[in-house]
UniProtKB/TrEMBL annotation:
It is found in: Golgi apparatus membrane. The chain crosses the membrane at residues 38-60, 137-156, 176-196, 208-229, 245-265, 272-292, 298-317. Belongs to the nucleotide-sugar transporter family. SLC35A subfamily. Keywords: Golgi apparatus, Membrane, Sugar transport, Transmembrane, Transmembrane helix, Transport. This is Solute carrier family 35 member A3a. The lineage of its organism: Eukaryota, Metazoa, Chordata, Craniata, Vertebrata.
Length: 328
């Protein structure tokens, strides 16, 4: 009974985290407020700091709240194994790029379209698993990938609009930027997830320690990116310009993502994880339409969304997929 409760609790938290992150991120990037808008590069940096602190606390708890044990394990696994630590620089840099791209995507796409299109990470993860890990996919999984591609193509199918020509052109340009950002994020998510999984399988270290190592590099890459792209704005108005309650909520939800995925992988199976993803897509679509009012659903969109949901379930039906087990 306890195991069953943990399973459904972790899935419930996953649905909440995935849906609320997408919606609050979209809302924060489109909210009209006085003063400068918060910097996405800054939010990525703060999220990395939160992840590192959370993982340090989890390692601290694993070692019975002993400061001596915590210091020993961090020195042993990070300072004394520089080559092992450096291996994580590659996925960390890619994750940092991916996190920045998601802000770009949700600045240009409605939450529903983003949610459905982002499921292409299942395809990229599967392809990288086959090429990098030598994993074999079953018939149901290959079929699900074909259905997934068809579903995403339908979601992106252009629809007739009665909008003004200039507004329509602006919308088309924004949609292209948003879709491109999502596609690159899907590729980076697939590669980095499989690369990180390979590292985890080759070592027996705690996943939280590995996340601390990832976070350290992510913090460095994030700071470099923030100074390179937004350095002038940071000097002018500070790193935390435009921050409000919504911004801090987005940052906290993004930091929580990897920990939630780890819990779901530990306590739930692939079918239930697919159910959580599907429920998140449906909730994002409804809230995007009724609350954010930035989405006009069409019959083609709903057909594509249904195909993506079916593909998500089907992929988890046979064999084990290879999602990133500890990082969103």
């Amino acid at each position: 009974m306890a195991s069953s409760r943990l399973k459904y609790l972790s899935l419930g938290v996953l649905v909440f985290q995935t849906t609320s992150l997408v919606l609050t991120m979209r809302y924060s990037r489109t909210l009209q407020a006085e003063g400068p808008r918060y910097l996405a590069s800054s939010a990525v940096v703060v999220a990395e700091v939160m992840k590192i602190l959370t993982c340090v606390l989890l390692v601290f708890k694993e070692h019975s709240y002993s400061m001596r044990a915590l210091n020993s394990i961090l020195r042993q696994e990070i300072a004394h194994k520089p080559m092992e630590t450096l291996k994580l620089a590659i996925p960390s840099g890619i994750y940092t790029l991916q996190n920045n791209l998601l802000y770009v995507a949700l600045s240009n796409l409605d939450a529903a379209t983003y949610q459905v299109t982002y499921q292409l990470k299942i395809l990229t993860t599967a392809l990288f698993s086959v090429s990098m890990l030598g994993r074999r996919l079953g018939v149901y999984q290959w079929l699900s990938l074909l259905i997934l591609m068809a579903g995403v193509a339908l979601v992106q199918w252009p629809s007739e609009s009665a909008a003004a020509p200039e507004k329509e052109a602006l919308s088309a340009g924004s949609q292209f930027v948003g879709v491109t950002a999502v596609l690159v994020a899907c590729c980076s998510s697939g590669f980095a997830g499989v690369y990180f999984e390979k590292i985890l399988k080759e070592s027996k270290q705690s996943v939280w320690v590995r996340n601390i190592q990832l976070g350290m590099f992510g913090l460095v890459f994030g700071l470099f990116g923030m100074l390179a792209y937004d350095g002038e704005r940071v000097k002018e108005s500070g790193m935390f310009q435009g921050y409000n309650t919504i911004t801090w909520t987005v940052v906290a939800l993004q930091a929580l993502g990897g920990l939630v995925i780890a819990a779901v992988i530990k306590y739930a199976d692939n079918i239930l994880k697919g159910f959580a993803t599907s429920l998140s897509i449906i909730l994002s679509t409804l809230i995007s339409y009724f609350w954010l009012q930035d989405f006009d659903p069409t019959g083609v969109f709903f057909l594509g969304a249904i195909l993506v949901i079916v593909a998500t379930f089907l992929y988890g039906y046979e064999g084990k997929p290879s999602p990133n087990p500890s990082r969103a």
